[in-house]
Amino acid sequence: MAVQRLCTIEDKPFLRALWQRCFGDTDSFLDYYYDNRFYPEYTVCTIEDDKLVNAMYSFPVNMYIRGNIVPAAMLAGFCTDPDYRGRGYMSTAFEILINNLADSGITVGPHTPVKHDNYIRQGNYTATETKFITGIADKPKIMPSYINFGRMSEIGKLYSVYTRFSEKYSGILARSLSDFKMKFMDLISDGGEFIIFEKYGIVGGYALYFNGVDGLSAVEVVYDNEETALNLVNALAFIADCKPLKIKLPPDSAANLAGCEEKTIPHGVAAAVDIPKLMRMVFKEDNIVIELKDHVCKLNNGTFRMNGEKEENKNPDLEMDAGHFMQFAEGYKAIEELLEEGNAVVNNKTAVEYLDKKYPKCICYICDEY
Of 229, 278, 274, which is closest to residue 255 (Cα–Cα)? Predict the structure, then answer.
C-alpha cells in the first residue's frame, strides 16, 4: 500500500535518483538544486514497494498580485517513476502539498505545467500569458550596440531593472536581491548564459538563455523599454547564428524578429492555497460576500467577505470555485467573463459591476518556471 507524506532530509538521495530518471538533468544542476532549492517541508513523496516512486516539489517565494506582495510557493518538478504511473499519486500528493502550504502561511502556488488540462481537475486554471518568438531569425550583420556578455560579478547591478520590470505585472515573482541572484544561479548551474544591455553606464535590460547545438532558448528577457527589448532579441538572434530560437517575453511586448513567428499563449496557472489570507492582503476592506468551493484545500470552503472574514449571516453576492476566483484575484479574468463562461453564479449584479470597476484586469505574466 502506498504511503504519501512530507519529505525529510534523509529522502534526498532517493528523490535525486527519481528526478534523474524522469528528467535526465545534468549532475551540476542536480548538485545545485538539491543544495539550494530542496525544502523537505515543501515537498511531498510517495513510497510504495519500499521505494520512493513519486515526488512533488515546491519552494517559498513572494509574488505580486495586483501590486500587493503575497507569500507564495513555486510548484516545481512533479515526477513519478515510469513503472508506477497511472495510479493517481499526483492528485493525492497535490492535495497533501497544498494543504501543507496553507498551514505554512502560503496564499498561492504558481506553476507552468506542460499540459494545462492535467491540472484543471485540481482547480488550477490559467492565470498568466506569455509571448514567444520562435523560428530561425535572419541574423543581424553585427551584434547590436551596447550589448555585453554578462559575468557573475555583474548580477547585482541588474537587480533594479528586474524590480522596475516586475512591478508592471500581476502574477510575477517579487524577488529580493538574494532571490534574484539565486535565479541566475539556477540557470547558470545548468549551462545558462546572459547578456546585458548597458548604455553610458546605465543598465537597461538583460536576457538569460541557453545556447546549444540544436538552438537557442531565452528563458528570461527583462528590459526598461521596447527599444531595449528589441536590442536584446536582435542580440539573441545574432548569438543563435541561424539556429532555431525560442524567446520568452511578456504578453505586452512589441519585440519581433524577421523570419520568426510571434504567438501569445496561456502559460502559467495559479493553485489556490489560502484564499482568506489572500483576500485580506489584496482586497482588504471590501465587504462583497462570496461563496467558495474547493475540493483540494479545505480552508477555502465557505462564505467569505472579500476582506477574508468568514460570513455566516448573509447570502452570497457571488458563488464560484476557488480556482476561478484566483483568475479574478490575479487580474487575469473579470467576474463578468467568468459569468459568461459559466464559471460563476451571480446573485447581485451590482456587486459584479463594483468589483470589475474597482479591480480591473491586469497584464499577467511570470518569468519563472521549473
Answer: 229
Contact (CB, 8 A) for 226 and 254: yes
Determine the 3-state secondary structure of 251 from DSSP. coil
Mean per-residue pLDDT for 180-201?
Answer: 95
8 A C-beta contact, residue 208 and residue 185: no
Residue 295 dihedral angles phi and psi, to the nearest 5°: -85, -5
- Exposure b/e, 135-163, CB count within 10 A at least 16 = b: bebebeeebbebbeebeeebbeebbebbe
Among candidates 268, 240, 231, which has minimal Cα distance to 134?
Answer: 240
B/e letters for 302-337, b = 16+ CB within 10 Å, e = fewer, are bbbbbbbeebeeeebbbbbbbbbbbbbbbbbbbbbb
In the numeric block, the cell 504567438 is attached to: 263
Radius of gyration over alpha carbons of the chain, in Å?
Answer: 22
Q: Examine the pLDDT at 370 and tell me if it is beyond 80.
A: no
- Mean pLDDT for the stretch of residues 93-105: 97
CA distance 370 to 367: 10
Helix H or strand E encompassing 97: helix 89-103
Three-state DSSP state, 216: strand
Scored b (16 or more CB within 10 A) or e, 66-97 reads beeebbbbbbbbbbbbeebeeeebbebbbbbb
pLDDT score, position 285 = 83
If you count them, how many residues does the chain have? 370
CB of 223 closer than 8 Å to CB of 197: yes
* Residues whose CB falls within 8 Å of the CB of residue 26, separated by 6 or more in sequence, listed in order: 190, 191
Give the span between the Cα atoms of 206 and 204, in whole angstroms.
7
Exposure of 47 by Cβ count < 10 A (0-12 exposed, 13-18 middle, 19+ buried)?
middle
pLDDT over 90 (residue 121): no
